[in-house]
Amino acid sequence: MNRLNPVRGWHRAWLALALVCGGMASTALAAEKHSMVTAPDGVQLAVQESGNPAGPAIVFIHGLLGSRLNWEQQVAGPDLQRYRLITYDMRGHGLSGKPDDAAAYRDGGRHADDLAAVLKATGARRPVLVGWSLGGAVMSNYLAKYGDANVGALVYVDGVVELNAALITAHPEVYAGMASDDLKTHLDAVRTFLSLCFHAQPDHATFERLLANAAMASWTMTKATPSMSVHAAQSLPKVRVPLLALYGARDVLVNTQPSLARLRELNPRMQAKVYDNAGHAPFLEEAQRFNRDLAAFVEAVPAQ
Predict the structure, then answer these.
(1) Quick one: residue 74, left, alpha or beta (phi over 0 = left, psi -120 to 50 = alpha)?
(2) Running DSSP on this structure, what letter comes out for residue 155?
(3) pLDDT tens, residue by residue, 218-228
(4) Which residues constitute the domain of residue 18?
(5) Do 226 and 257 sit in the same domain of this protein?
C-alpha cells in the first residue's frame, strides 16, 4: 500500500494554504499602485494610489517625520473608498529621496514643486488637497507658486500656517534633541515628538510603526525644516476654492485657536471644525469622524 508520508502531507497542505493566501494577498495588493515620481531638482518621490481610480481624487500630504503610513486609517476607511486616494512621502521622509543639502528643505518652493510633480504624474484632476501639520505649509507654498486653478478644495489638518512662536507651541528641548548629532539624544527626542502628536495615544503596534517610520527621516531635513520658507500670507488671500480647517482642541504642537484665527484673517471663507478630544492628529485619534467629515466636504465641492 502506498501511504502518504505525514510530514510530506503536512508540507503539501501548508504549501496549498500558502498559495491560496498568497493569491488573496496579491489580489488585495493589486488595487494599490506604487510609483516613483521625479521632482524638478531630481529628488525621487514615492507615490501610492488606492481606492476608486475613477472617483474624485484626494491627495494626502503628511507632516514632519511622517510618511504615507500616517494615512492608513483614511486609505483603509470604508467612507473614503469611493474616492481616488493618493499619498506620497515628502522629500526626506519614508521611501522618498533624502538630499544631503539643507537648501533642498529650507526652500519651500521645492516642496511646492514636489506636490506639483505628484499631481502631474498621477493626472489627478482638481483634487482635494489634505495637508497635515507641515503638509499645510506645503499646500500654502504650492498655492503661492502655482495658484489654485488645478485644485478642487483644500483641507488644513492642524496645519502649520506660519513658522512663528505665536502659532507653534514651544518645545525647545525636543526640537534641539531632534537636531542633535548624538544618536540616543536624537532618537529619544523623536519618540517624545511623536508622543506629542496625540492626545489619545494610538495602540502600541501603531505607535511603534510610526516611531520606526520617524526614525527613517533625514536628519538634514529635521534640522533644516524649522527655517523652511512658508508663503501662506502670499497665497491664501488669493484662494477661491473651498477651504476647510480641521483641528484638535488639545493640540500641543500647534496653537489651535491662534492658527484658526490666522487662517480666517488670511481667507475669511475658511470653514472650521474643532475636535474637542483630539490632539495634533485627529485623522488618527478620531478616524471615523474625520473620514465622515472629509467625505461630506468632498461631496460638497462644486463639480468642475
Answers:
(1) alpha
(2) E
(3) 999 999 999 99
(4) 1-30
(5) yes
